[in-house]
Structure formats: structure tokens, C-alpha cells
Amino acid sequence: MRLLRIVPDDTKFDFMRFRRISFPISAILSIVAISLYFFHGLNFGIDFIGGTLMEVQTKAGPADLSKMRATIEGLKLGDFQLQQFGAPDDVLIRISEQPGGDQAQQQAVQKVRDALGDEVDYRRVEVVGPSVSTELLAYGTIGLMLAIGAILIYLWFRFEWQFALGAMIANVHDLVLTVGFMSLTHIDFDLTSIAALLTILGYSLNDTVVIYDRIREMLRRYKRLSMPDLLNLSINATLSRSIVTHVTVAMSLLALLLFGGQAIHSFTATMMFGVVLVGTYTSVFIASPILIYLGVGTGRMGEQEEPEPEPEPTKAPATTTPARRVRARGQ
Amino acid sequence: MLFFTRWKAVAILLTAFVVCLCAVPNFFPESKVKNWPAWAQRHVVLGLDLQGGSHLLLEVDTAAVRKERLQSLADDVLRVLRQARIPFTGRSIVGNGVQVHVTKDTDVDNAMVKLKELSTPLSGILGASGQFSLDISQNGGTITLTPSDAALTERIRQAVDQSIQIIERRVNELGLVEPTIQREGVDRILVQVPGLQDPTRLKDILGKTAKLDFRMVDVSMTPEQAEQTHPPADSELLDGEGGAKYLIEKRVMVSGADLTDAQPGFDQRDSQPIVSFKFNSNGARKFAEATQANVGKPFAIVLDNKVIEAPVIREPILGGAGQISGRFTVQQVNDLSILLRAGALPAPLTIIEERTVGPGLGQDSIVAGEHAAYAGAALVIIFMFVTYGLFGLFANIAVAVNVAMIFGVLSLLSATLTLPGIAGIVLTVGIAVDSNVLIYERIREEVRGGRSAINAIDAGFTRALATILDSNITTFIAAAVLFYIGTGPVRGFAVTLGVGILTSLFTAFTLTRLIVAYWVRMWRPRTVPI
To answer: Residues with Cβ < 8 Å from B328, sequence gap 6 or more?
Structure first.
């Protein structure tokens, strides 16, 4: 049986050549993402700004949005949004936070329930008071910072500090772009978005660490190879794995996106963007070349030097794993 | 790397088998599982987003607890000084404390001694903590008593504990199935009721303090007079039905704590809904004494500082039973009797978060999650087989075991499965194969590097496993943080993601290796078929 090879054996792409393009592109995209965040803003869900969210399903036929709008308008509850949600009889009602503290939110829900009466099924009712929403936002932000810090420390222990820093810069860049994507598409930004961002952070790093592991190994093995060549070699060596893994993750996410239902739609869409699109690009075009700028292997011979011929695979007993003890010191 | 001692192989297979076995109770209906031995009953709990239900987060009004503590402290000061016959003026609540001015300088020392008796030592973790419940300071004739922070914190903790008990009683009285009631942080209580579609009534019941008092009506002046001038020091103006005002004595004759029973019913004369109640012996005695002494005068039934009714005592009530007949609906008397039976909350509760999912949406989500899981698994399994052939099949076995083990571990933990949690499992399927991909790609590479088949497989495992460990730990850290900060559905995602990483590490390090090792031993391959 002939097996599928998405990536041919022994690729020799010169990825490092692109760093003069990828860095400016990433810089521009990051700036765009940050400006989107500041000028276009995020579509904060009730988790973070408080308020009420109701998903209702009309019992008789498709929902009459304008009639429903008029009904709720009459309740004088301030800003609200109506939105079709999946099926034509499914409507999402969003009511902004009511002035008057936690109790006022409950009264608003009761008013809507009374006004819409028995014509609809209440599929979901979520009310978040001001005290909870402030906390959730703080927890979410602290959580992201905590995760970044913890992973940074872990990588610092396992690799040289340049690697830890490089991975962090690369993956914070991932998060920035993802937030830009969420701003652009106006996806709800709620607690599950924080979950999506953390997962993106985890998986992008997972990918970066795999390549870094290989770079560290190569640094040990090829003492005289110039840094760009060495990075190219490492990326090419792990290229097949990167592609195969991302295809399987993309398949899982695609299944969730197509069949997982409306409730986790924005969650999976965000992850699709962050893990599959941005994460892969970052590991190859940002996380690896950034090591050059962070001074890994600066003491190495110039690029004109002939690379040392590839040594025979070591016949050392497989039980010893030098990669675990010897640290890469660019000398 | 490819050699396993017999006992090690058995241990690996046994572990995988036992963990998978733990998932079994999930596939049987609850009615059957109930008859199994207790250790075999642990199963995954469906989250509220999947089975439908209400999630209410309540906050205990700590300001009210503080205020009540100060009020009772002020009462204690009054009692102590009166008993000791020490004249004083200006007893008042100032800021966080109670202030009193002792009139004669000669009494000050005596007053300090007596008031210090009010302060009790607080117990710490190891016996006495050296702290006292009150800070007492003296400035000339003015004495200030301030409850210490530790004492207030303790009081709030007690109030929350007590609230939890009362909420439990109220929820049980409503006949709701399998409610979860637990403390969250310092002053919050989480109430989760599976299957509850419309939490309006529950919210009504939980939102009432239900503090019931029987007090005398102050007839020394009319409510109108009291409103214009000032109510007497020992009385207060309270609202009644329909905007009526009543002047009621502050002293409580009998409180709701002395009730033993309350039942909804109908008045025999006019068939109006009423609540009939019974006092315990202590309450019955106090009520008898009070009604005997006050025949012909009105008394008031006060619920949450609102006068429900103020009937005139026609004759002493000695039987220890009575009835409350405001202008109630049937629903109201039902709720009121539940509230009276369950007892009063020590402080008001506010609902600060509500998340209710109807059963329709929950069912839809389960179906959606199942479809996504099957579709995701099918895609990945086919892809792995097409890419790695026989070794792809090995990977697929590992993934199947992996998913079964996730359910096993979740069952052992009695973890909650949410829709994002299902997403976490589907994602784990994609991620779990990554370990295999790393190993197989490394083997391919080693083969290209000129190694023999067995040598390449061995080296591939050795080198890939270090990488697998490194890369999975980063994701695990993210999952751990998410578990720590997340609530409800998000926490469910963190759990399945974290457990998925652990089980996929287990299968990569043991099961996949074992399968490949057996294959190598059986076939002694010269080439690697990947």
C-alpha cells in the first residue's frame, strides 16, 4: 500500500529567507490588530460587561423580529439587540446592564419574560450582575498573564532564556492577531473566548517547542553550521510532522465547527484561526528566526563557511538521551 | 526502548483496561447503575448546559450582617450597663463601633470591667488565638466597642453556613431534584438545580429573608403623629399592605425561630387562603404570656419588616397555634409556609449571576456534541490510516483507548461534562495522534538517516518522547490555569483538555510503544512500513 506523503522527504526550503518579509508583515498585522482592538473594539459578551442574554425559540413558526423588537422596546430597558441565531425561529436577545446594581438585572429579566409570555420557549437565560462581570474580566486577564508567566518559566528551565523569550514573543503575537480577528469578525468575546485564547497559547507553544527541541538538538550536533542554515534544517526536519498534526487538529476543529452547534461556534472559529492559521505560521516564520535576533548562535562561523558534513547517526545506546542534559550554548 | 518485561506489559495493559472499565457506568441507565456496588457507581455528570437547569450565584449581604452585629452589640451594652446600674448617655452606633458615655467618672472603671466581659476570646486553628471579639477603647467617660475584623469575618462565615442550610431546606421543600448548594469564596453561595426550566419561583423563594416576628403595636400615638414628630425610641414605623403605616414596638414577643410547623390552608369562615402555624413549647409559653397581658390591644405579624396583619387580641391564645391571614393567593400561602418551615436567612441574599438552560437546548447540544465527536474521530482515523498504514492503525487503537480512558478518569473524578468539555475531547483526538505523528515522523527520519528498521524505531521513540513531554507540558499548564480561573462550562473544557493530555501521554509512552514492540517481536521487520 502506498502511503500518503503530504510533505515529500528531505525538503530543503529556505524558510529563513522569508524572515525579512515575515517580520515586517507580522509587525504590520500586529499593529492592525491592536488598532482594531482600540478603534473597532471587541464585542464584549455579558460575562465581561454584565447584562442579560436570552435565547428564545418561537413556538409558532419563524420569529417576527420587528414585533419582538417593538415589544421589548416598550419595556424601556435601554440598549438591546435582537439577532437571529441559527434557525429562523431562534432569536438571541441581548439587554445591556441595567443601572441599579445586581437586583435591577433580575427585574429586567422578569419584565421580558412577562412581555414575551408563553409565545416562546426560553432555551437559555443568562444574567450577569455588575459585581460578577468585573470579577470575570479580572480573572480572565489574570489567567492569561498567569499562563504566559508559568509557561515562560517552564521554558526557561527547559531551554536557554532566549528560547523562552522567543517562544513568548511569537505566541503573544499569536494572541494579538487572534484578538484582532475577533474584533474584525465581531465574534462574542466572553469566558469561552478566554478559554480559546489560552488553548491557542497552549497549542502554538506546543508546536514551537517541537521545533525548538529540534533546534537544540541540531545546535549540539552541528557545531559549525551557520544559524540560518541550522534553523532551516530544523524546520525542514519537523515540517512533515507540523503539517500532519495541523491537518488532524484542523479536522477535529472542522467537525466541531460544522456539527458542534451554535453554542460553541465562535469558540471553534477562534481556535481554527489561532491554532491552525496563525500558530503554524508563527512557529516557522517568527518563533524560529527570532532566535537569531535574540543572540542564539551569534558566536558561530559566518555563512560563507562550508557546513560540516552530516555525521553518521550516533550508535550510542538509545537509553541515554543527551538532549535532556546538554544545553544548547551557541558558541 | 522496545523491550518490556512481562510484568511491565501486564501492568500497562491492566492499567489501561481498568481505567477504561471505569467508563462503563456511563453507558447504563441510572436506574440500573443504582443497584451496583457503591464503588462502581461513579460516573460522569452532565453539566447544566447539556441536561438543562438553573445556575444561580447568590451573594450574602455582608453589610447587613455587620449592621446586625452592631445592633446586637448596642443591645448588649444597654443590658450590661443597666444590670450594673451604671448611668450613661449617648449610646449610639458610630462608624464600625458602638459608643457610650458614662455619666459619672467614678463609674468608668467599673463600666470597663463589665463591658470587657462582652468580649470573648476567639479560637484560632490551634486553640486560643490571643485575639478577642471586641476592641474596647476608652477616652475620658466615652467608651467605644468595636468588633474586631476576625470576629466579623467569623460572623460572616457563620451567616453563610447558616444560609446554606436554610437554602437547602427551602430547595428541598420545593421538591427540586438533586440540587447542588455550595459555598463560593467568602460570601457567595452557588445553587445549581438540574432540569429546572423556569427559576422564577426558586428565585422568589431564595430572595426572601423570611424573618417573621410577632410584636405589639405601639398605641401611644398614631402612625401619622409618629411620622410628623418622631417615633418613640423603642418603636418604629413599618409599612403594611396597600401603603398603610403602622407604629410597631421594636421588642419582639415571639420570633419565627420559635415556629415548629407552618402549613397552607383555608380560613373556615371566609375560605381565604391562610397559613396556620404551631409554636414550640418555648414560643407557645411566650405567646400565651404576651396575649394574656395584652387582651384588647392589637399586635402585629411582621414579615421582613413589613406588617402582614395587625389583629386585636380578643382572648389569650394558649394553645400555641395560630394562623396568618393577609390577603394572600394560594401560591403565596404555599410559598410562605415553605419559608416559615425552612426558617429565616441570617442576612438578605442577592442573585448576582443566573444561567438557565432549557432542556431543548441541552438535548440539542448533546446531539451536536455527539455528531461532532463522531465526525472528528472518523476524519482523523481515516487520515491516520491513509498516512501511516499499519502504524496509523496502531495510532487509531491508541486514540480509541485514549478516549475511553478520558471517560474513565472523568468518571473516577465524577467530573462534569459540558459542551466545551466535549469540544475538549474532540480536540484531544486531534492532539493525541500528535504524539504518534511525532514518533512516526522521527522514525521515518531515522530510516532516511540510514538506520536499520528496528534501530530506527527504537531511536524514533527515544527521541520523540522527550519532545512529546516538553510540548504537552505547555498545553497542560494552559489547561491548569483555565481550570483555576474558569467556572461552569469553561472549567469542563479545562478538565477534559487536561485529562486528555495526561491520558495521551500515557498511551504514547506505554501503549503505542507496547503495540509496536510486540509487532517488532512477531514479525522481525526489515523495513518500516511508514
So the answer is: B272, B273, B274, B275, B336
